[in-house]
Specification:
It is built from six helices and 13 strands. With 284 residues, it is an alpha+beta fold. β2 and β3 form a beta hairpin. α1 runs antiparallel to α2.
């Protein structure tokens, strides 16, 4: 290997390490800037600037770092393997091969970081009673699968305990999940809604020692105002092994045109959810 090839290989390997280390760094910075933006919510300019930095770090971690890592690693291999070969050969390979390597790296990372699974069925609609099931999942609901995959919780479509129809969803938790979000077992759905329209959101819950954290909000477009409804439904409100209905009134704040309903199981035990409805208030 001549000196120029060795120098190019070394430079590319340094870039590989830099992109590899850049991923966790940008992930941490994304979280830091996002938290700071929340704390500075009363200062519009500061909060907006921090929000922009958070988004930049998010995309840098998710796309730039994996793509850079893959392309530099492949380029280093090409330079090393074509040492002593005609320069046009390495030139062609360097121009063509890193691009698909970038795409593969990004797709693999997105798959690895996927936090939820969704089985789509247009004919099933909102599927609030979970009657339509595909591959073991209720159609059109995104199920947070990481705690299920890690064995910290289990998810079932129960055909013996439904309050409406023939099916209900059931979570069995082996540990507590304080807080909320993607790390806790649950499911969500995003449904279209009219800006300014008031909706009835209701669900039935049956509990055996656990709790459900509910969040109703609007997601798109990413503009204020957002007026989320957040509630935790525990054993003190459901009773033990009894179906209870819970209802909420939510008005979609313009310019938003959707409703996102998140349901998370929080405490060790079992909890069932069924007959989830989102209907215009005029239809009550």
């Amino acid at each position: 290997m001549d000196a120029s090839t060795g120098k190019r290989t070394k430079q590319l390997l340094i870039a590989v390490v830099a992109f590899l280390l850049g991923f966790p760094v940008f992930v941490i910075l994304h979280g830091v800037f996002d938290a700071m933006a929340q704390l500075a919510s009363g200062l519009a300019l500061v909060s907006g600037a921090l929000g922009v930095l958070s988004v930049i770090c998010f995309y840098a971690a998710l796309f730039v770092c994996p793509a850079g890592f893959a392309s530099c690693l492949v380029a280093a291999l090409i330079v090393r393997l074509t040492d002593g070969q005609p320069k046009w050969l390495s030139g062609i390979l360097l121009a063509v091969v890193p691009v698909p390597a970038c795409l593969v790296a990004v797709l693999l990372l997105l798959q690895a970081l996927s936090l939820s699974k969704t089985e789509r069925d247009e004919a099933a609609g909102f599927n609030g009673s979970f009657e339509v099931v595909s591959s073991g999942l209720p159609a059109n609901w995104a199920v947070y699968h990481r705690p299920l995959r890690d064995g910290q919780a289990e998810f079932f479509v129960d055909t013996t305990e439904a309050v409406h129809g023939d099916r209900a969803v059931k979570f069995q938790l082996h540990k507590a999940f304080p807080g909320h979000g993607w790390s806790s077992p649950g499911l969500f759905q995003l449904t279209d809604a009219d800006p300014g329209q008031t909706y009835d959101v209701s669900l039935w819950v049956k509990n055996r020692g656990s709790a459900v954290r509910l969040r109703i909000t609007s997601e798109f477009p990413d503009e204020e105002p957002k007026t989320p409804i957040i509630d935790t439904i525990g054993i003190d409100r459901t009773g033990e092994d009894e179906w209870r209905q819970f209802s909420y009134i939510y008005t979609v704040p313009p310019p938003h045109h959707d409703i996102r309903l998140d349901l998370h199981a929080m405490e060790p035990g079992m909890v069932w959810i069924d007959d989830v409805r989102v209907v215009p208030a005029r239809d009550r």
